[in-house]
Amino acid sequence: MAVLVFSSTYDPSTDDVLARLTHKGVPWLRLNMNDFAATGSCSLDTSNRLTFCSYGDVLEAEEVSAIWFRRYSRDVDMSHGLNPAETFFVRRELDHFWRSVFARLESRTWINPHTATSLTKPEQIRIARAAGFRVPNTIVSNSPAHVREFLELNNDQCIVKPISHGFVIDYLRCQIGPKAALTNAELTNVASHDVKTNIEPKICFTELIKSEEVNDASIIACPAIYQERIYKSAELRITIVGSQIFPVVIHTQTGLDPDSATAVDWRRNITITDRAHEAVKLPDNINEKLLSVMNDLGLVFACIDAIVTPEGEYVFLEANPCGQWGWVEHLTKLPITDAVTSFLAKASLKQL
Predict the structure, then answer these.
(1) CATH 3.40.50 residue ranges for the chain
(2) Bond preceding residue 154 cis, omega within 30 of 0
(3) 119-168 per-position pLDDT tens digit
(4) Measuring CA to CA, how many Å separate 314 from each of 115, 128, 248, 260, 307?
(5) How far is residue 270's CA from residue 35's CA, in Å, rounded to a whole number?
(6) Residues 9/35, Cβ–Cβ less than 8 Å
């Protein structure tokens, strides 16, 4: 039996796992979702036949016992000169098509189930809190009145961050170029679709926000996550594969003013690999909470972001079901790639 992989053209973690599956003699087929129209095809019919093709290789669904849902994309091949309305139509058709395909594959072993990967940060926070984790006081809103009330309740010590991944990308051209910071003043234009189609991708960083900085138009135009600001002594990157937990402390705060923008979001000015990474053992009760969160989220794999407060308390932030782990493994030698490979290899042995 084979492993079916949904990924993208550039994903080193996928490359590493598939190389090890090949070494183990496990057959696989990789579909790069970002250029699927150019490199692959898929057909399903009323006889229940489901066929995948990628770079000339063919795999029938009846040969698939495990699915690695690494990346999902509805990128559209722009070489056909589609206008914006046509592009939107094709993207919608792709979404419905893939949902039909995934429904035919529900009985397989997934890492992760496609339905679980769509859970949002607010839902993750709710589940983590129910599992016993401390989570930041949070409101997700586009109501200026509610945001102001929240800031007041939290002593005007709050941060704001995007609900999704935070990238502002020219989806019409499907290109990713140099990164740049997105200011609060630009959020209104982004939310009202006034971004020019040739704009370079930008990032909405996590930022401190004060009551006097609240802009009603920006808040109304674009919902966001507002949270109490919790000071941190370090950050945690916790990679989970099945029941295996790989926790790493990242010393992002070393030498920083705790009120600086970089201390709030290290992505602004820090190369993360320059910071000390330390593989650690978490307390048993924290491990139990992590596995409870994974179970309730329906996830097999995730990279969980958390922080450690100066008082030593663990605070859950979010779980990324498609997170990267390559740099963590490189710096700590934790066998994360082997864990993913072993999970898929074992799942490939199951008979339908």
Answers:
(1) 2-111
(2) no
(3) 789 999 999 999 999 999 999 999 999 999 999 999 999 999 988 876 66
(4) 28, 12, 13, 22, 6
(5) 31
(6) yes
Q: Which residues contact 104 (CB under 8 A, 6 or more apart)?
A: 44, 48, 50, 61
DSSP character for 201? P
Pairing of strands 2-7, 64-69: parallel
Contacts (Cβ under 8 Å, ≥6 apart) of 165: none
How many other C-beta atoms lie within 10 A of the C-beta of residue 276?
Answer: 11
Residue 279, number of CB atoms within 10 A of its CB: 13
| Domain span(s) for CATH 3.30.470.20 in the chain | 117-133+231-343
In CATH terms, the fold of domain 2-111 is Rossmann fold (3.40.50)
Span 57-69, pLDDT tens digits: 999 999 999 999 9
d(CA 286, CA 294): 12
Q: Which two tokens stand for residue 333?
A: 């030698």
How many whole angstroms separate alpha carbon 228 and alpha carbon 331? 31
Give residue for tokens 């000071």. Answer: 231
Distance CA 251, CA 274 (A): 10
- Tell me: domain 117-133+231-343, CATH 3.30.470.20, correct? yes
